[in-house]
Design brief:
Shape: globular
Strand order of the largest sheet: 6-5-4-3-2-1-7-8-9
Bound molecules: S-adenosylmethionine, iron/sulfur cluster
CATH class: Alpha Beta
Distance between the termini: 23 Å
Radius of gyration: 17 Å
Strand content: 15-25%
CATH architecture: Alpha-Beta Barrel
CATH topology: TIM Barrel
Number of helices: 9
Number of domains: 1
CATH superfamily: Aldolase class I
Order of helices and strands: EHEHEHEHHEHEEEEHHH
Length: about 270
């Protein structure tokens, strides 16, 4: 489907949980997060049904995200169910990679072939500081296992203060080069302040060509990361929610007072 600014909207990012096993400083507060009650989280059946309707509406690119998608119970089954949906040209996942060493093979066998892993630094202490609780070695093990089982491409999402000339980013670039991973550098954004810019090596941040909408883990369809607009797929119905989200996708982002990265999937 095309929106009112003639953008073809064909990319859906699905957040399968708002929970996470890390607490990255730019994404989550250290404590005091109110998790969405399990009873409100979309079931696998709802996610798959919604995906089928999205495919019928012209979507062919899907990404599973979170929170941390690998903490959602049964995630391999969901990947298996989604990879059976006819009409999906591109199914990917964005993960912090900390649990990837144990999940990579099952995810691959279930039909996932593309993965983005978040990695901001190769300095273990800095990694722990950024994520508050993470262990860099878990991510590196996850990456090596993902490579071993055949994931391709493996992209690295590296959050930077301003750009990739920063030393941590340079380290990630070199690491990526050595292992055949593809780095993308994402300037740190603020939803509340409305600060966002283009992703180096990716296609996010270009409002005039933005082709994506987002589904939160409790079933709200968000036409833009930097907007409070949202359409509840359960109350409106799946098809109507898609139509409304596309019809009301703003020309460009402004500010999001209500959402958080870990709800919206980044
Ligand atoms: N937990 C998974 C992960 O970290 O990859 C998936 C969800 S996370 C919200 C998706 C992406 O958003 C990650 O690559 C993360 O680095 C990015 N992100 C989170 N907060 C951000 C911020 N304030 N500015 C820019 N990117 C951010
Ligand atoms: Fe968790 Fe990802 Fe947010 Fe970090 S960026 S706290 S890993 S959801």
């Amino acid at each position: 489907m095309f929106d009112q600014f003639n953008r073809r909207i064909n990319y859906l990012r699905i957040s399968v949980t708002d929970r996470c096993n890390l607490r990255c400083t730019y994404c989550m507060p250290e404590e005091g997060i109110e998790a969405i009650p399990h009873s409100q989280i979309l079931t696998f059946e709802e996610i798959v049904e919604f995906t089928k309707i999205a495919v019928a509406k012209g979507f062919d690119k899907f990404r599973i995200t979170g929170g941390e998608p690998l903490v959602r119970k049964g995630i391999v089954n969901l990947v298996g169910m989604l990879s059976q949906v006819k009409g999906i040209a591109d199914l990917g996942m964005t993960t912090n990679g900390t649990l990837l060493a144990s999940f990579a093979k099952d995810l691959y066998d279930a039909g996932l072939k593309r993965i983005n892993v978040s990695l901001d630094t190769l300095d273990p202490e800095k990694y722990q500081k950024i994520t508050r609780i993470g262990n860099l070695n878990d991510v590196l093990d996850g990456l090596m296992e993902a490579k071993r089982v055949g994931f391709n491409p493996i992209k690295l999402n590296c959050v930077v203060e301003k750009n990739s000339s920063e030393p941590d980013a340079q380290g990630v670039r070199e690491f990526a080069r050595q292992h055949g991973f593809i780095p993308r550098f994402i300037p740190k954004m603020s939803l509340e302040e409305g600060t966002f810019s283009v992703v180096e090596g990716g296609d996010g941040g270009h409002c005039s060509t933005c082709n994506r909408i987002r589904l939160t883990s409790n079933g709200v369809l968000k036409p833009c990361l930097f907007s409070d607009n949202g359409y509840n797929i359960r109350t409106l119905g799946f098809e109507k929610a898609i139509e409304m989200a596309i019809k009301n996708k703003p020309a460009h982002g402004t500010i999001n007072h209500t959402g958080k990265f870990y709800n919206l999937g980044g």
